[in-house]
Amino acid sequence: GRGEACSKKLLASLRDICEADSLLCVTHLTGGDYCVTLADRTPSFVDYHSQVDNYADDFWRDFEAHFRDGDEHKHVLPGSRYECAETLRDLALPFLRGLTLGQLCHVVQLAISCRR
């Protein structure tokens, strides 16, 4: 309806503003979507949907060992990928040290889709 048309117009205006700013880089994606990054920085996004597993076998052994220690109630994690990644970060497990929240989201995705 009218609200949807208004939203599309606002998003198009925002895209135009971003494209006019030399400090920003606009990348057009499929379906009319776009991504805006800072022009002077290399994007470092983690595609958490990627099925590419760059983590070492030792990493996955440590991951599995932690969650198979016999105390199921201690390891109840939230249902959303992001909240699960936040919880893992907050546990401060040694084998997860240094991973970004985006990388933790990717680990969660791999764990539920490829590493069952």
Q: How would you sum up this structure, described in words?
A:
The N and C termini lie far apart (43 Å). The chain has a two-stranded antiparallel ribbon with strand order 1-2. α3 packs across α4 (101-113). The relative contact order is 0.11. A hairpin with a 5-residue loop joins β1 (24-28) and β2. It has four helices and two strands. Helices cover 47% and strands 9% of the residues. The chain has helices at 2-20, 57-67, 81-91, 101-113; strands at 24-28, 34-38. The chain is elongated, with a radius of gyration of 19 Å. The chain has 116 residues and is mainly α.
Order of strands in the sheet with the most strands?
A: 1-2
Taken as a percent bin, the fraction of beta residues is 5-15%
Give me the count of strands. Answer: 2
Give Rg in angstroms.
Answer: 19 Å
Low-confidence stretches: none
**Structural class category:** mainly alpha
What is the ordering of alpha helices and beta strands? Answer: HEEHHH
What's the main sheet like? 2 strands, antiparallel
Put simply, the count of helices is: 4
Q: What level of helicity do the residues show? A: 40-55%
The termini sit apart by 43 Å
Write down the overall geometry: elongated
Mean pLDDT: 86
Summarize it.
The chain has helices at 2-20, 57-67, 81-91, 101-113, and strands spanning 24-28, 34-38. It is mainly α.
Describe how the helices and strands are arranged.
Layout: H1 2-20, E1 24-28, E2 34-38, H2 57-67, H3 81-91, H4 101-113
